[in-house]
Design brief:
alpha+beta, transcription regulation, SH3 type barrels, 5-stranded antiparallel β-sheet, DNA-binding transcriptional regulator YafY, DNA-binding transcription factor activity, 4-stranded antiparallel β-sheet, about 325 residues, DeoR_HTH
Length: about 325
Amino acid sequence: MKLDRLLAIVVLLVNRGRVQAKDLADTFEVSIRTIYRDIDTLGQAGIPVVTYQGASGGIGLADGYRLDRNVLTDQDLASIVTALRSISTSHSNVARDLLVEKLSSIVPEAKNEDFQSNTSRFIVDYSTWTHPEALQIKLQLIESGMDQSRLITFTYCSAGGNQTIRTVEPHTLVLKRHSWYLYAFCHERNQFRMFKLVRMRDVTLAQGYFERRLIQPHDRPWQQEWVAPDNQAPLTLRFHARARHLAEEWFGIENVIPDGNGYYISQVAFPEDNWLYGFILGFGADVEVLEPEHIRVTIRHMAEQIVQNYTSASQT
């Protein structure tokens, strides 16, 4: 709807300051001409939209303009409450729980039934299967560090077994590949690094404080590294019929194609690392890597080592 697009444009301009018309057109999948018509409509409605010329130009709002909080619709409130409840599944927070209560209380009684229905349509459970208490403690400590702009220290155990003491400025918690990560500025490395929470031990709040460094959330530096072409390994996997449902759950029904011989083919791309090898091996004998050849060889060698481990155990 045009009204929804107009409101979304204003929100983007408030948050980002200045945006190119082409970027807005791409975001909303409309023409640049439509964007300029929308800008005219906003101007006629009293929204102080400013068009800047030149190489660094774009569309922005007059300095100091803010949206009224009454701009939030009942659906907006329902979406916020759903997101807050999802986060609370991994670690509880009294302030966050109170915020849910506050947001719920401002919904008119006549609309409460619809509101409760909207907030129960999606349930995202971030809790882990194992050691949830240990994860909650880490998350709470890190969140306290972020709230107070306070340094945290911990022992970090790398995948190679090396242990180092780190002092970092905690900036962002990231849930990725079913695991929690901390994006922080590391004093030992003098740069931003990603730390996997399950590899962090003895997490404590340090005495020092820091001034938060500017990070644009929409830049998502952790996402850029993940999807970088040089970090992607294209895979062709062949699944046995009995594992078809697992392949569909991971890759989607449209990407699990029958090959005419009773098997199913999926073409996917993942960063190549130990997680990928373990992921493939997790399907057991129900999957075969067809391409690339070097990953096929790696999986075969790992499978041979597994057989050797169990053969050796049976002989002792």
